[in-house]
Specification:
The protein is an alpha+beta fold. The protein folds into three domains: about 5-65 and about 100-260, Phosphoenolpyruvate Carboxykinase, domain 1; about 260-330 and about 415-615, Phosphoenolpyruvate Carboxykinase, domain 3 (Alpha-Beta Complex), CATH 3.90.228; about 330-405, Phosphoenolpyruvate Carboxykinase, domain 2 (Beta Complex). Helices cover about 30% and strands about 20% of the residues. The longest helix is centred in the C-terminal third of the chain and has 18 residues, at about 490-505. The radius of gyration is 24 Å and the shape is globular.
Length: about 625
């Protein structure tokens, strides 16, 4: 039997050479189960060498120089972008592959209708076939890592092996990777194993390519045994397995079993002119302003927003009974196009150096550029494929999913508490989507269960930037549709149960829904967005303090006519009315759509959310 025939166990025998099982020299001692697991993976994949990563600056430098020598990355102009690099992937390896992402639960119904399910035994057989010999001629890198600050009671640890030095550099930015994480495992922490290969073995004397990958791809999760396998891709979340694969898909199952929440949420600290601070968690599907809110530069005087996390949050009930959260990541893996000094000046300032860019364009003087970075593109660029580009080329200079990978410590708005091992106290939770109609600028949920209903019914209208019918309404509950590692009906029930536990222990956070993208009758956006979104945060915080009034509406509480701070904005009364208008006939039609969506989950759908839908219909009938 081999690793892929069965779940790992602490007693798995070491059948590879002793040198493959554990490092020698100054590297700290390796737990027996980690050493045995690494040896077993090595026996199957047959790497030429094994390197145990220590996470040091020296190691990162050496890997970057190796990647330059291999042609995988190029160094940018150090005077313009110090110690930064550009990678250009293979054209077939540019984004997350949801169609090749599998949840291999023992019971198909446990994966649910929103996940791709595969039989665990059959998938293990498939994986055994593709991984056999997949690392020949390459180095296997062993990366112990921590999601969350080392030693935090909210942190989790894992070990990923990979044959891609690009992935090692990326993982070293996105996690706390190295000897400290391995020592946490030695101290008894449970760990998640993750196996990754680009699937491009090298024969003796064969010349490598700059971006090795394979047309056959798998991103596979075994939730019961907490295992992750990825094959064929070196890009982003397909290969940085600590990110979506661990921190959301596997962690969501851990959270269900252990009584906490693993969420696709940003975390921010908002400080009012009084000096009092509040912490907010917010879930947004893609293209809904998530990164901009995480790094918000408020347009209103006296208010500040600090960044704790831009993508993932783990939430637990603390020892004091209050809801607390950490950002389990150590870096930002952000989408570049659309990021500019106008839309997100904090992100631009974060990228001053020490950054790895992937699939962006480069300028003649050795810097980076992407669509939306400036209002006018440069006259000449090298595009993401490495080809000459001009504004007349008729193609995008940067890939629409081009990325930057940078340490969170480099962000000028990073909060001093972003690595608090106990987590920050969450005062409010925000859900948002991209809606041209029906959904107001902001509503407040009536209670926790109504807030769960708002989260479960998040939707966005399809734009021309992605595949699908423009204007089509697509549900993305809690912004977790691609990332929940189990049946979402059970996930909704877990949220409801979590609220009941919160009610028994301490104050329950308020829940809000926002929509920055409401359009008027002329098709233009009604709300200016960006820094002015702080005005909505101000109303939320004043609601928390009991100093702002609200009025009831079918969807929830909304600001009174004078509730929002509009000072300095040129906004007509008509625009303000449109921002909060709720067409009952249209909402009744949408309620039917929600019912059809709920029916997808059959008897796994919690009765409480069906009750919330009927309450909404009752309010719409008035």
């Amino acid at each position: 039997m081999t690793l892929l025939d069965h779940p790992r166990t602490a007693s798995t025998p070491d059948r590879a050479p002793a040198s493959a099982a554990a490092p020698t020299g100054a590297y700290p001692s390796v737990p027996a189960d980690v050493a045995a697991w690494v040896a077993e993976v090595a026996e199957l994949t047959q790497p030429a060498e094994i390197h145990w990563c220590d996470g040091s600056t020296r190691e990162r430098h050496d890997l970057l120089q190796l990647l330059v020598a291999n042609g995988t990355i190029e160094q940018l102009n150090p005077e313009l972008r110090p110690y930064s690099f550009i990678a250009r992937s293979h054209e077939s390896d540019v984004a997350r592959l949801e169609s090749r992402t599998f949840i291999c639960s023992t019971d198909r119904d446990d994966a649910g209708p929103t996940n791709n399910w595969a039989d665990p035994a059959a998938m293990r057989a498939e994986l055994q076939g593709v991984f056999r010999g997949s690392m020949r001629g390459r180095t296997m890198y062993v990366m112990p890592f921590s999601m969350g600050p080392i030693g935090s009671p909210m942190a989790k640890v894992g070990v990923q092996v990979t044959d891609s030095p690009y992935v090692v550099v990326s993982n070293g930015t996105m996690t706390r990777m190295g000897t400290d994480a391995l020592q946490a495992i030695s101290a008894g922490a449970d760990w998640v194993p993750a196996v990754h290969s680009v699937g491009a073995p090298l024969a003796a004397g064969e010349k490598d390519v700059p971006w090795p990958c394979n047309d056959t791809k798998y991103i596979v999760h075994f939730p019961e045994t907490r295992e992750i396998f990825s094959y064929g891709s070196a890009y982003g979340g397909n290969a940085i397995l600590a990110k979506k694969a661990f921190a959301l898909r596997i962690a969501s199952v851990q959270a269900r079993d252990e009584g906490w929440l693993a969420e696709h949420m940003l975390l921010i600290k908002v400080t009012a002119p009084t000096g009092k601070s509040y912490h907010l968690a917010a879930a947004f599907p893609s293209a809904c302003g998530k990164t901009n809110l995480a790094m918000l530069a408020p347009s209103i005087p006296g208010w500040t927003v600090e960044t704790i996390g831009d993508d993932i949050a783990w939430l637990r009930i603390g020892a004091d009974g209050r809801l607390r959260a950490i950002n389990p990541e150590a870096g930002f893996f952000g989408v570049a196009p659309g990021t500019s000094a106008a839309t997100n000046p904090t992100a631009i300032d974060t990228l001053w150096g020490n950054t790895v860019f992937t699939n962006v364009a480069t300028t003649e003087d050795g810097d980076v550029w992407w669509e939306g970075m400036t209002s006018t593109p440069p006259a000449k660029l090298t595009d993401w494929r490495g080809q000459p580009w001009t504004p007349d080329s008729g193609t995008k200079a940067a890939h629409p999913n081009s990325r930057f990978t940078v340490s969170a410590r480099q962000c000028p708005s990073i909060a001093s508490t972003w690595e608090d091992p106990e987590g920050v106290v969450i005062d409010a939770i925000i859900f948002g989507g991209r809606r041209a109609t029906n959904v107001p600028l902001v509503v407040e949920a009536r209670d926790w269960d109504h807030g769960v209903f708002l989260g479960a019914t998040i939707a966005s209208e399809q734009t021309a930037a992605a595949e699908g019918t423009v204007g089509e309404l697509r549900r993305d509950p809690f912004a977790m549709l691609p990332f929940c590692g189990y049946n979402m009906g059970d996930y909704f029930a877990h949220w409801l149960d979590f609220g009941r536990r919160l009610r028994r222990s301490a104050r329950v956070p308020r829940v809000f829904q926002v929509n920055w993208f409401r359009k008027g009758s002329d098709g233009s956006f009604l709300w200016p967005g960006f820094g002015d979104n702080a005005r909505v945060l101000q109303w939320m915080i004043e609601r928390l303090d009991g100093t702002a009034c609200a009025e009831d509406s079918p969807l929830g509480s909304i600001p009174t006519a004078d509730g929002l701070n509009l000072e300095g904005l040129e906004m007509s009364d008509e625009h303000l009315t449109e921002l909060f208008a709720q067409d009952k006939a249209a909402l009744r039609t949408e309620a039917d759509d929600i019912e059809q969506f709920f029916d997808t989950f059959g008897d796994r759908m919690p009765a409480e959310l069906r009750r919330q839908l009927e309450l909404l219909r009752g309010r719409l009938a008035d």
